Amino acid sequence: MSKPTITDDTQDAPALAGVHHLKLPVSDLARSRQWYRARLGYEVTMEFVEQGRLMGYVLEHPNGGPQLALRLAPVRARAAAGFDYFAIGVPGKTALDELAARLTALGDDHDGVHLASIGWVLPHLHDPDGHEVRFYATEQHAGPRAGGIATIEDPRETSERRERAWAAVPGQRAGAS
């Protein structure tokens, strides 16, 4: 994505350095730890023990993924199920295809790799608590309009229509740039 233009209203915006970590409420720490390790390669680097009880983990990814915190909070985990609070970036469509194949081989349901508004998306993977974990390619097939705010009308329907049109071209893979 392109950065917004600095204007008189934003020239004094504070310096920020991206997302520090993502935190998810979970109902079973051991189960979630194992799921994120087996599917995505995350490893525990920190534990949080409160009054003698294990309450959370910090997970690190060995190959560039965001730091992930898991917090034992069963009621919140149930309330958060089904929503995609974040999307994890994947370098490109090829890496997204490889991730989809890995998840399929592990027996996980997902919707496969699809054309999205400006890149590709792998949606509808759910962790053990039902959180939707989405992946987007950081590689783009189209850029946002120059200057101003890009408006994406009916993003799902527009992407599905474009994907069908590209797939109909002989010799062209859906989503290829």
Structural class: alpha/beta
Count the helices. How many? 4
Strands, total number: 8
What name does the CATH topology of the largest domain carry? 2,3-Dihydroxybiphenyl 1,2-Dioxygenase, domain 1
Strand order of the largest sheet: 1-4-3-2
Q: How would you describe the shape?
A: globular
Query: What's the helix-strand series?
Result: EHEEEHEHEEEH
First CA to last CA: what distance?
17 Å
What does this entry look like structurally?
With 177 residues, the protein is α/β, with parallel strands linked by helices. It folds into two domains: 62 residues, 2,3-Dihydroxybiphenyl 1,2-Dioxygenase, domain 1 (Roll); 96 residues, 2,3-Dihydroxybiphenyl 1,2-Dioxygenase, domain 1, CATH 3.10.180. Helix content is 26%, strand content 25%. The protein has a four-stranded mixed β-sheet with strand order 1-4-3-2. The model has no long low-confidence stretch (mean pLDDT 85).
